[in-house]
Structures are given as C-alpha cells and as structure tokens.
Amino acid sequence: MSTSLDERNGGAARTTRLAKWAIDLQYEGIPKEVVERTKELFLDWVGCAIAGRHHPAVSAIAKYAVQMGPTTGKSEFIDGSLGLLTSPAFAALVNGAASHVVEQDDLHNRSMMHPATVIFPAALAVAQDIQANGKDFIAACVVGYEVACRVGEYLGRNHYEMFHSTATGGVVGVAAAVSHLLRHNMSQMLSAIGTAGTQAAGLWQFLIDASHSKQVHTGKACFDGIFAAYVAKHNLLGPKDILEGPRGMGNALGRGSTSPEAIDQSLGIDFAVLQSSFKWHASCRHTHPSVDALLSLMQKHALKFDDIESVVARTYQAAINVLGLSGRGETVHQSKFTMGFVLAVAAKYGQAMITDFTEEALRDPALRNFQDRVTMKYDAHIDSQFPQKWQGTVEVTCNSGKQISESVEYLKGDPQLPLTRLELEAKTRALFDYGGYDDTKNIERVIQRVWQLEDEVDLLGFSFE
Amino acid sequence: MSTSLDERNGGAARTTRLAKWAIDLQYEGIPKEVVERTKELFLDWVGCAIAGRHHPAVSAIAKYAVQMGPTTGKSEFIDGSLGLLTSPAFAALVNGAASHVVEQDDLHNRSMMHPATVIFPAALAVAQDIQANGKDFIAACVVGYEVACRVGEYLGRNHYEMFHSTATGGVVGVAAAVSHLLRHNMSQMLSAIGTAGTQAAGLWQFLIDASHSKQVHTGKACFDGIFAAYVAKHNLLGPKDILEGPRGMGNALGRGSTSPEAIDQSLGIDFAVLQSSFKWHASCRHTHPSVDALLSLMQKHALKFDDIESVVARTYQAAINVLGLSGRGETVHQSKFTMGFVLAVAAKYGQAMITDFTEEALRDPALRNFQDRVTMKYDAHIDSQFPQKWQGTVEVTCNSGKQISESVEYLKGDPQLPLTRLELEAKTRALFDYGGYDDTKNIERVIQRVWQLEDEVDLLGFSFE
C-alpha cells in the first residue's frame, strides 16, 4: 500500500529537493544582497522582541519556561531582566512569543506569513547553544525563511482561512534552519521536516475573543521545530512526504487547494528573504498606502501639519471595511486602526512609529481636530489592483486653497521599496524605547554588531535587561 | 463581529458545560466502578510504558529531554535506567511516547482513541510534582479520559481519516486533567482547553513509511497539554470556544462532519473510563474475535493443540483485507498480523501474550504446521455487524473427525467482557518481562499498590530500572 500511495503523490520528490537544497546551502553561495537583507530582518526582529517582552502572554510563557525548563544553559532570554540562561528550546519558546506582540514584524506577502518571529528566535537560541558563528547563523536563517515561506505558500489561502500560517509553515522552517545548524544529513533533514510537519498547529479561533494564542503559536512553532530537528539528530524517523503525502499537511490542512510548485520552484534564485516586507508605520497596514502618499506629498510640497485644511484618502474596499470598525479610536490600539488619527499623527510627527501612539496623543486636540478633516473614499482603480498592489492616493486641500494629490504604488518597506538602514535603525530605537530599554550606548553597539554579523564568532549577548 | 460569530455557534455553551463538569468533579462523587476501572487502566498503562521503554523513538525523545529539560525535579521517567528526575513536562513527554509502542494500550471505541497513553503519563508526572495523592490523581484521570474521548468523538470519523485522534483529542484531555490537579478556576480551565485545542496536531502520514511519529504524537500531546494547563494558571488566555467556534477544531480539523452532542451529553452518567477496552491478546485486534472463539471452544470441549486438524475463521471483510497484507508472517511484527500463526500460538499456549511472539516461535515447525491448516472465510452476518460488534466464529475439525464451532459477540477486554484482575496482573507481568524488567517482587508490590491507589499519599515510585 505504502508504495502506491507514495507514487501517486510524486514520491516526495519536491520535499526531497527542498531538503537537499536546505542541506547544501553554504554561506559562501548566498548572494550578497540576501545576506544583507537577512541582517536587516534580524535587527528588525530584535527590536520587535524587545518591544513585546512585557506582554502578559509572554510573561506567562516565561514563567512556564522557568518551571519546566533548566535555569542554566547557553541560550539567552532576550528579556535579560529574567536574569537567566536556559536551553535553546525554552529560550526560543519565550523569545518567539515576545517578537509577535507589537505587530511590527516582517511579512512575506505570498505566503501571508511573518517568518522573522519563528525563524530568528529558534536559530539564535540554537546558535548560542552550539556556539555557531555569524556566517552559520545567517545561512541557517536563509534556509529557515525559504522552507517556512514555501510551506506557507504551498498550503495557501484556504489553509490561511483557518490556520495561522506563521506557525504551521513556521514550524517546518524552524526544523530546517535548526537542522542546518546541526549539520543534518539528508535522512535527518527529511525526518526533521516530517516530524515538524506532523506537529503543525495554530487556529485563528483566538481572534474571536482576543485571547493570547498568537504568541503561543509562534513560541510553540519554535519549540516544536527545535524538537523535530534534535530528535532527528538522534535518528527518530519522520514521515518523508509530510507536505504532499496522502495523509500529509496538504491533504489534511490545505482544505482543498494547495500550490505544490511553490515547494521547489526557483530554489536558490527566488529568495524568501528578499520577498519579505518590513513594516514601517506602527499603524494598521491598511493605513500605510495613505500615510506614505501623504508624507510624500508633504515632503514634495514642503507642507507642514498646520498648512493642511483637509485630506481625502482614496483607497480599496477592504481598507474601508477594516478601518470602519474602530470608531473614533478611543484606545491606543484602536487609534492605530483609525485612518484620520493615523494621518494626523503622520502629518504632525513626519512618521507614525510605535512611540507616537500614546495616551497623550489620544488627548491632543490638534490631532483630533486634524482627524475630523480626513475622509476615506472608495477608489475603483486602486481596488482593482488589490491585494497584488497596496496602492494609495491622497487629495489634500491646503489652507491656501490649493489642491494637490499624490499616489504611491508600493508600501514603504515592501521589497520594491526597502527601508534604508537609517530608517531601520530609527525603527529599532523606537522599539527598544517602547520595550522599556534605555541603554542607548548598548543599542548602538547592537546595531553596529548586526551590520557586521557575518564577522561575529558567536551570537551571545542578545539579551537586554 | 466576535459576538455574532460566537452566537451563531452556540456561544461555547457545550464546551463551557464540559469545563464546568471537569472543575466540579470530586473523587467522592465518582462511582465506585469508575474508580476501580481507572486503577485497572492505570496498571495496564504502567505495563505498556515499561514494555515500550527501549524503542528507538523513545530513546531519541529521552535524549532530547535530557538535552533540553532539567535533570533534577520531582517527576520520574518510568524508565528508571535513565537514573534521572525531571520536570513534569519532560517526564510526561518521554513516558507518553513509551506507552504507545507495543500496541497493547487501551482503546475507547466510540472516539477511536487510546486515552491511557496520553492521560496517565501527564497526570502522573504532574501529580508527582505537586505531591497530589491517589484520590486526586484518580479524579484527574477520570476528567482527562472524559474530555479527551468526548473531543475525539466530537471530531469523529472524517477527522480520524487524517488525524491521530489519540493526540488531537488527547492534548485537550491532558489539559483538563492537569488543570483539575492544579485546581483551576473556570476561566483558567476554559483557557487551558482553548490553548490545548489550538495546538492539536498529529497526522497519519507516518504510517506510509513506518516512521516514528506515533510516539511523537502521544508524547507531545502530553507535553502540550501540560503547557496549556500551566500557562493558563499564569493567566494566559485561550480561546473560549475552541471546539465549536467558527475557526475552532471542528471547522478546521473536522473535515465536514462533527458530533457536537458528544461534547456534553450524559456527563457524569456515561463515563469514558467504563467505555474503554483492554487489549488482551498481543496480536492485531482483527484476529481477536477468532482467538477468543477458538480458546472458548477448546476450553468447552477440552481440546488440546494436537487434537485440532483444521480451523476455519469466519470473519468480516476488513479483517481479511488487513490480515492479508502480512504474508506468512516472517517477522515478529508481521506474525501478529497473520491469522493462522496467531491461532496456532493461542492454541498451543492457551494465550497470545506479548512474550509468546518470539523469534523462536517463528521457527517452531509445530506452529507453522498448524498455521497452514487455518483458513479465513468471509461471513456476511458478521460483516453486517462490524464495527459496532467485532464478532467471530471458528469452525474446527478435530483429528477425530468431529466438527464443532463457536462464536463470540464481544472481545475479551471489551467493556461488556472486562478482564479479571488476575488476567490483568498476568498481562502486566508479561509486559514487564518484555520490557526487560525482572524484579518480580517489585512488580507484585506495584500491582498491589495500584489496587490500593486511592489510599496512597503520593504517586512517587513509578520508575523501574
């Protein structure tokens, strides 16, 4: 029986090719731009993890880690205030939860995944444990991004309706990244992928009552992927065709449609790392096209906050639907989902960073007054392009009576429009600030260290009190 | 949005009732026969865990536990040869894997689950850690069986086609059992159930290449259920309607059909513990109706092995399909799936225990000769009753020329035909023997201890070198 079922499904050929690529990748063979982008994504991840480290879900998981895990080891909790070292599985569990709190982590559009929040914490914790160097770490992360995002894209949109793909694709990517660090042979790599895949989990049900599973999913994807890789090293056998097999992830979790070609096409040419977007503004992503257009317009025409009489934000229907739910934005969280308030913040501060959305800002009459002069308008052309392109147009009427407009085709932070390193450093500082860390000297040291990551002899010292 | 989606799905009413029942159950309110059966199931589990402790998958997971977990604590690896104590999560991880190796663990028919292999290792490890007494342990296990089997039955047959229900229902049952031990309030119990459910995983893909996920699934269900219960104690919020919610287990994993009434009907009246079967013979379950019929016939007519000329085993189609795959039974494993060989063993030894299937037995000409005189025959009436009843009929021709037949309606070990304690003790001794443990005095001590479990002040000492 096993042979015919296996053959009917291509005999695991695609998964085997992906696993072979994951084993064979060497730092020296990775294009320079992929290496540089990986370092940028990693710095972005460090900031997100610090910013989220005090969330109640993270604290609960950290307590569990102290109860159930060792309190000595070589792997660091990124929240140094815990004052502990531990084993890689528990460091990654807690750090993976922390980095998925503030909604500022990266996004791989095609797979609808946030790869940083699963790949980096797992690879970092294991690299610390085995004293891997910067080059090994970067190569493992490139592998992890690739495998995670390809599995996420393979599982596709129907899967994403029910499952948190960051976790279900992520656990497989983690297994591959860690297996690369542990220098698995082919059988062990396939076993790690198989064992991770048969443990893939994470349902969207938590969104309905705003509970804490989001952080559980990413932390556990780290833990479970590390588990899969280590037991594979100890020769625990995993199913060889976990993606496409008759009782594998695609058939069980794909809900009727998958994209098998995503598993192995253009391997080594089309890098997931290069297809990942940075999130620049701290507001809902549906406000970003309008924010980018407004900031661009203000810069081009040297306009100030007080020069603006009113703004019409032309956008797609999905944005109007989502942004219509948060009313006037009475809480900090809601205010990030309120187009008028977000544009007011951007216009006043020239940015909309995580530290710009505060209780004080909510009570600022100037911001509230500006907000009242913003309207959203449906734009049929923009809507027809969504979601392939997240375009935006703003029409501004100035106090002088002058009317001007500006459009953007891509979001700032998208692969087509990456952040500059200066912008990324500014975002990082804001995230550290938000996370209550104020040793500015050390922040600058960390930033410079990441820019030279390939020269590092180890990955120790990514822990902040 | 959340309200209407919630209401459309009954507002988590069934899950809330199940959680409330799980919190409220006290040892004193459990019917005597449920307590006694729980102890029997626990002894059966101890034997299965010892018998499986040296399997390569278990060894790999034990190595991981030593690498990633603490090597001090109050929870015991049932394999005392590791010489270590650990935290409850890791003890349960390894012990849960060990008890699902030899295919001798219990079966809850309606849910198609093996509850013992997930509920007992988790409850035992936590009971050891918090020094719960025998009564608390028994009550927690009754809760765990109930919740696990109800979730498994709710998810149903379509789910079972793809998912290893022992793990997916099991993780929720573990969370409930552990939450009972930790004395969760209602909000914490619901959170534990929710967090466990959003982590439910385990695919049958591993069957296709005979890999080791079976033990991963049960060990990880223990680990993940313990995780869910402990983080809930630390006030991590889980989704409240993880079973029936629009993006919950039923909709995501139920594959189009679920049985919602199974969640909460007849709670406290219909106990899963009483609906669980013991596996008596060590062979494939499809051989059991014929083995039971043959042994009954031989006893009634005082027949011996050498008195039998030939046997016709009348059975249902599924048995013929499965048992047709193992040829003549060239390996010990295959021999348990070969009707002729299994009946030969049963006829010769008066039983078919785990220690009766050996390399020596494979080479025994008397057994092989008997095997050649056994045929299987399709029986339309028996087939029409399957799988509600696993009936069997044997027609025996004696050397004397006499023809006799015998039928059985239930399997030995089924709820309708439970094992006697003497039989269970014999099975336990065989399982210890198979697991390489020969301190017979200690085995007898353990057996007696389990029969008095409700009087025990703690659960320490279930570890065997």
UniProtKB/TrEMBL annotation, chains A, B:
Q: Which residues form a coiled coil?
A: none
The domain of life for this entry's organism is: Eukaryota
Which residue numbers delimit the MmgE/PrpD C-terminal domain? 281-452
InterPro entries registered for this protein in UniProt: MmgE/PrpD_sf, MmgE/PrpD_sf_1, MmgE/PrpD_sf_2, MmgE_PrpD, MmgE_PrpD_C, MmgE_PrpD_N
Task: List, for all copies, the residue spans of the domain called MmgE/PrpD N-terminal.
Answer: 17-256
Write one Pfam family the protein is assigned to. Answer: MmgE_PrpD_N
Q: Extract the GO molecular function terms from the UniProt entry.
A: lyase activity
Q: Which family does it belong to?
A: Belongs to the PrpD family.
| Protein name according to UniProt | 2-methylcitrate dehydratase
Q: Which organism is it from?
A: Talaromyces proteolyticus
Recite the lineage of the species: Eukaryota, Fungi, Dikarya, Ascomycota, Pezizomycotina
